[in-house]
Structures are given as C-alpha cells and as structure tokens.
Amino acid sequence: MAQGVFAITEQRDGELRKVSFEAVSEGRRVADGLGTELTAVLLGSSVDGLAEELKKYGPDKILVADDAGLAEYTTDAYSNVLAELIQSSDPAVIIMGASAQGKDLAGRLAAKLDAGVAMDCVKIQLENGNLTYTRPMFGGKINADVEIEGAPQIVAIRPNVMDTTEAAKDSVIEKPAVQLGEVKTAIVEKKMETDDKVELTEADIIVSGGRGTGGDYAGIEALADALGAAVGASRSAVDEGWRPHSDQVGQTGKTVSPTLYVACGISGAIQHLAGMSTSKYIVAINKDEEAPIFSKADFGIVGDLFEVVPAITEEVKKVKE
Amino acid sequence: MDIVVLVKQVPDTESLVQVADDGVSIKKQDIKWIMNPYDELAVEAALQIKEAQGGTVTILSLGPEKAIETIRTALAMGADHGVHINDPAVEGSDSLATAKLLAAALKDIPYELIIAGHRAVDEDNYQVASAVAELLGIPQVSMVNKVELTDGKITCHRTIEGGTVVVEASLPALFTTQRGLNEPRYASLPGIMKAKKKPVDVKTVVDLGVDAALVGAANRKVKIKSLSLPPERQTVKMIEGEAASDKATALVKILHEETKII
Fold first, then answer.
1. Element containing residue A110 per DSSP (H, E)
2. Of A246, A307, A316, the CB nearest to B244
3. Which of B229, B256, B162, B245 is nearest to A281 (CA)?
4. Which residue segments constitute the domains of chain A, with CATH numbers given?
5. A103 CA to chain B: closest CA distance, Å?
6. How far is CA A144 from CA A117, A124, B63, B215, in A?
7. Would you say the pTM of this structure is higher than 0.90?
8. What's the ipTM?
9. A90-101, pLDDT tens digit by residue?
10. How far is B197 from chain A (nearest CA, A)?
11. Each residue's pLDDT tens digit, A51-97
C-alpha cells in the first residue's frame, strides 16, 4: 500500500526557490500527521549543495536526481524522472509548488500515474487519517474543499501561503540513477528580467495601480521601491497598454498572496478582487469613497492617489531610516 | 497545418459566483456564459497560423448542450468545424477524465498542433492540456506568449516567474496560451452567418470508446466535499485626516506598529 510523503522541490540557476521550503515544511507536517516518512525530491545538475540546504526543513530522506539533462526544467525529462521515482517508492501523497513549473508538471504527472491533483491549494487539513485540500476556484470567488481518491494524491500548493518551518534533521541523501526518457523539447534560451525586479507571485508586498493612475506609474513605482515591493496592475491598466501583461493581477492574470497589497486607483472589479483576496492585509487608496475595493480592504484612504501615494512613500522612507 | 483548439465554456469573469443548495456546485441560473478567455487566445493563434500557411482549424469542446454556443463563437471567428463531446454521462468529470475524453476524440481528428488555454477560469485546474499531451504522447509547452513555426518545429516563449524561457518542440505538439500572445478578433456578422452552417460533430462516451466507469461526476478522483465563499474581512478601517500627509502618516504608523509589515 502506498505510504510516505514526497515533497518535490524546485531549483533554478543553482538556487532553491522559496516554494520548495514551503513544500518540504508542509510535507513534514503532513507526514508527521500521518505517522509516515517525508522524502524531499530534488532534480537538477550538480545540486549537492542544495540537498544539504533542504536538511534544514527536516525531511527523513532526500532523493537527488542529478543529471546534466535536468539542469533546466523540461516537462518531458522532469515528468519522466519523477514518474520513475514515484513508481519505485509508491508514496501516498506528493506535494509540489503551484508555480509555473508545478502548473506545467502536475497534469502531465497525473496522466502518467493516473492520479488526482488538487491544484493551487491554500490549506491542507488532516482528520482521522484523511487529507482535505482547500483550493480557491473561479479565481478565488469560491473555496472548494476536496479529497482525492486513490494514490498517489498530488497536491500543488500556492506559493507564498504555507509557512516554512525549520526542523533540521540529518536526512539520508540518496542519489538513484535516473533515465531521462524520450525528450522532445529543448530549451533554446532563457531571458530573465533584471534581478532587482520582484516577481508578483512571490512578493511579500505589492503596490498595484489601476485606471485611476491614468497611466502614470511613477508614484507607484517610487512607493514600491521604498517598500521593496513588486508593482502590479489591474486588467484595465494592462488593456490600456500602461503595464505589461505579466503585471496583471486578477482572474485572468496572476493570483497573488502577499503580506501587504496596496491598491491605488483600483475600483475593485470582481475579477480583480478574485486575484488578490488572499492577501494578508489590503490597503485601498481611491478618490471614490463608494469604490467596491473598500469593502475588501483592511485599511482605506479616500483621496487623490497622486497626493496620497507620494506622501506614503515619504513616510515609509522616514520609518525605514 | 491541421490545428485543433481545445475550448471550454465558463462563467463570465464579471459574474458573481454563488454556491448552490447542494453545497458542492455553483448556481447556474443567472450566469452569463462565455468562451474561456485563454481559449479565445488559442482560437486566435490557430487562425493566424492557418491564415499564414493554410490548413484547418477544428474546435474540440466538452460540455453540456449549451456549450455549442461557444463552439459556434469560435466557428464565427473563422474556425472550420467543431467536435462537441456532449453526453450526460460526462457531466462533472474531473480534469483527468476530461483529458481522457478529449484524447479519445483526438484519435479521430487529424492534427499537427493542439492549442489550449493554460487554464479554464472556472475550476482553475491547470491540468487538462498537460494531461491530453501526455495521453497522446506529444510534447507540451505551457503559458506561451509568443510562438513561431518553422519546418516541423515550434518555438514557444514560455512565461515563468520573472522571465521567459524559449522552448523548441518537435511537431506534433501542444501549447497553452498566456495573455500577451495576441488580441483575439471579434466574430464578424458574415462570420456569424457562416458559422451556422459549419459542421459540428456530436460525440458520446460510446462514440469515443471510453469506459463510462472512468468519467462523470460519480467517478471523480478529485471529490468536491464542499464549496464555500471565502471568509469575509473585517470592516475596513478608513483612515481620516486633513491633508494627504496626515493620512499617509496614520497609515504608515499602523503598518509599522500594528501589522509590523514595514
């Protein structure tokens, strides 16, 4: 019978991504609850150092698939190798990040293993040995509690939501030989934006602008700089061509869960609210006191964003000094 | 090139979504139904490729009777024909079962390229397209915002956190769309008239040769136990003050001292 928990980690350019620690920490919690072992799984090329780093989060075992062909993520090689590792260990639960990688991988792996997937989960609950996964649907308008029949159960967790917990252990590291299998895709080029730009889905703070900006994001960018935040945008701002598509927050853009979300000149269309409603704190700044955004915010300021936002930036700088 | 586009009918993103009395499904009465916005990008991408190099565009959709409207919309945009998996037995299928049904239908449709939205904005599962690619044994590239086709290969710009990866795949292949790929066209009036006469094949579980015990609501691997509305936030605390600077000072004080974010 299937038993044990797998936490599939994610590395890029020699660094583990934060969602990996979230997956291992959540995996530890689930494994302890089920009274079973946690195995962290790491795929990459020359990643011994990263395996050491994973010990901090307390897996019993770390499976390292080290191969030059795994340096960069490709759906085929990663899903082939993972399917092989999963089939030989027969885990009951597989946890991974619902990142760009996890969202690409989960469906492919599910079809290989004939398994069910709970995608983009924000909570895992254990009761009487049964796992229930809470996942937003309709872009966050509804929460679904789901259970998965059969094994393995694949669960992809929303980045930035689950806590990371250090619980260092002298984990056993195993490096099984792996077969990449048939690979029909090749990475030709990787174009990363400048390092200092914070990615929306991983940001701790987001300052977002909507129609009320009239396309002028200077004040919003200055506040984001002062806070070390990422800049987001509403759909209308993206449709106007003021911001790139990659900045869009909402049901047809990115779903974000920062600690602080500052909505500037965003009225709060239902499809926007859907994409940011799991933020811990929401601040709304809008000149219209009737704007729906205020009904979803923790703190609100009625006023002209071109006056209020620069004033906040000044205050933030003072506090940070 | 023969292209198949996977299309799903979903509630309009501006719709309020409410939990039905059974607690496990949504109220369907007052919803306006639209083509999944990412699928519109997929239809547009297929039409642009067809216009550049010829071929056919087939729309494949699984859904109830009503889903024909969405297939007709895609035909009105310029697609050539439709295949509609419409059978009460498949209603409520989960992602993997849906993928099995679509893959079964694809055995009878010629294709070199399959295009789909990277997710449907109803259940937000992000799985059907990847699972279809696996079941067909073809490569996939997800969340693509730029695509080029050259002799037997497809080059896709795949969006990831903080950047883009350029991925090359051999054909036949599947890719999923991301915002920024194109601006979907609207159906023209002549297009709408023509669409009424374009052929749409209806397929049932029996036609597809799929075991009915693998599909439908009763056979989900992923069982919905309950649906609920997200917890309401506490009432907003409005920050008052004479000048903008007073409000700013008060807000930053709260963020610094109470929430300890700054």
1. helix A100-113
2. A307
3. B256
4. 5-174 (3.40.50.620), 200-320 (3.40.50.1220)
5. 6
6. 13, 12, 21, 20
7. yes
8. 0.95
9. 999 999 999 999
10. 32
11. 999 999 999 999 999 999 999 999 999 999 999 999 999 999 999 99
